[in-house]
């Protein structure tokens, strides 16, 4: 108690005053530290960069999410790889459709060799790896072609897997169906196509030579409406498969074209097959029996002897009939027969059901001569020359086949006047038009 009482009141006041001053100093020094910290340019810059980085990260993530959402809701993509048959077709189509031909290209080199041994090289340029843009049907399409690390085997060759992804705005999947259809059509139009002819060898069909060029149907000059008549009948038959099936009728059609040699029977059949996209046998084909009268001996005249065919193997008549419409005969079959001698054919061969249409291919009429002349010379020949040519041809004794007229015109391909002069000289010398 004595020690406590010994403390002076002045000392107590001094201690209290020191504590108060110390607290005041701390209160005053705290805002000064914060102010000085924010006034420090390095701290302010670092804090600003950190804030910008945070905002940028938020913006980037938001953009990624928005892009994913937008693609999922408002865009469609199509992905192909180089294992797909349509892959090169699509790349080639993209390159052709690009308004500004891309400068980033890859090349595919192909060496071709003809049957004669002649070689040629073709180069096909395709869009290179990376991103490209092109416009199709008023839509912009992004093309992303990438090469993967994965390796695939193709015709015993190991090649890297490649993919191409096409992306466009719109949710209509039909857009890509149309795109692929156009790319395929473009690719197939560049493939050399033609009329394929097969020969029967034993029980098999063997391809006879390379594909022939398709001949335009209107290049075979016939009498008025004859071509249209056969064409329309065949077209109706091709479209009537279900009609035949529903009624239990064999889906077959037979045609007999008869007339003198050189009247265009075989030429017309070839042109017709090419027009409808058919081959000359086997499937999706037209079966052609040329000079059918020479294939067998008539049953009515077994002693008949066609010396021109002596030594050749002939089929039996019953074998021919079985091949045409026997039990083993295939459905969806189109048969054409030609003959120069209708009277030599057995009635059983050309009865209805085996031959549904018979048409005569005759000699040239004046209109056919005129059409042949126009076909060769077109606008280079005057009306006067055409009229004169037709008039002179009409003065020849006997009948003239289209093949004879064509042979003459081939001698003077671009010289209509010389063709007329040749006719005049031939007529004056009383020679036949061979």
From TrEMBL:
Intracellular or extracellular location(s): Mitochondrion inner membrane
Protein name: Mitochondrial chaperone BCS1
Classification of source organism: Eukaryota, Metazoa, Ecdysozoa, Nematoda, Chromadorea
Topology with respect to the bilayer: Single-pass membrane protein
Enzymatic reactions: ATP + H2O = ADP + phosphate + H(+)
BCS1 N-terminal domain boundaries: 50-220
Pfam families, alphabetized: AAA, AAA_lid_BCS1, BCS1_N
Source species of the chain: Strongyloides ratti
Keywords tagged on the record: ATP-binding, Hydrolase, Membrane, Mitochondrion, Mitochondrion inner membrane, Nucleotide-binding, Transmembrane, Transmembrane helix
Segments forming domain AAA+ ATPase: 251-365
Primary location group: mitochondrion
A molecular-function term among this protein's GO annotations: ATP binding
GO annotations of cellular component type: mitochondrial inner membrane
Family (UniProt): Belongs to the AAA ATPase family. BCS1 subfamily.
């Amino acid at each position: 108690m004595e020690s406590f009482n010994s403390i002076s009141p002045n000392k107590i006041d001094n201690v209290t005053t020191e504590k108060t001053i110390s607290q005041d100093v701390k209160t005053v020094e705290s805002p000064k530290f914060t102010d000085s910290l924010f006034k420090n340019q390095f701290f302010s810059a670092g804090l600003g960069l950190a804030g910008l980085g945070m905002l940028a990260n938020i913006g980037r993530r938001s953009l990624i999410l928005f892009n994913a959402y937008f693609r999922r809701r408002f865009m469609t993509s199509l992905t192909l790889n180089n294992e797909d048959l349509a892959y090169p077709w699509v790349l080639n189509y993209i390159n052709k459709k690009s308004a500004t031909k891309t400068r980033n290209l890859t090349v595919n080199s192909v060496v071709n060799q003809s049957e004669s041994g002649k070689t040629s090289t073709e180069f096909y340029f395709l869009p290179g790896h990376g991103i490209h843009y092109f416009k199709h049907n008023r839509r912009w399409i992004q093309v992303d072609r990438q090469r993967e690390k994965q390796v695939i085997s193709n015709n015993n060759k190991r090649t890297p897997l490649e993919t191409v992804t096409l992306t466009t705005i719109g949710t209509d999947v039909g857009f890509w169906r149309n795109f692929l259809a156009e790319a395929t059509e473009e690719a197939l139009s560049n493939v050399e196509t033609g009329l394929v002819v097969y020969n029967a060898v034993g029980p098999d069909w063997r391809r006879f030579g390379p594909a022939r060029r398709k001949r335009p149907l209107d290049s075979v000059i016939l009498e008025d409406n004859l071509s249209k008549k056969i064409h329309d009948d065949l077209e109706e038959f091709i479209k009537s498969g279900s009609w035949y099936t529903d009624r239990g009728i064999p889906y077959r059609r037979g045609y007999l074209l008869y007339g003198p040699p050189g009247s265009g029977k075989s030429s017309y059949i070839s042109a017709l097959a090419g027009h409808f996209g058919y081959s000359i046998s086997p499937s999706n084909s037209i079966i052609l029996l040329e000079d059918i009268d020479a294939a067998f001996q008539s049953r009515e005249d077994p002693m008949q002897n066609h010396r021109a065919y002596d030594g050749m193997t002939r089929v039996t008549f019953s074998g021919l009939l079985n091949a045409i419409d026997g039990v083993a005969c295939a459905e969806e079959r189109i048969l054409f027969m030609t003959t120069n001698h209708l009277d030599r054919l057995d009635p059983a061969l050309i009865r209805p059901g085996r031959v549904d249409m018979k048409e005569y291919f005759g000699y040239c009429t004046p209109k056919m001569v005129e059409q042949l002349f126009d076909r060769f010379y077109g606008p280079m020949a005057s009306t006067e020359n055409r009229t004169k040519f037709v008039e002179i041809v009409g003065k020849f004794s006997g009948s003239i086949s289209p093949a004879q007229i064509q042979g003459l015109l081939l001698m003077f391909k671009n010289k209509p006047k010389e063709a007329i002069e040749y006719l005049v000289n031939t007529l004056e010398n009383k020679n036949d038009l061979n």
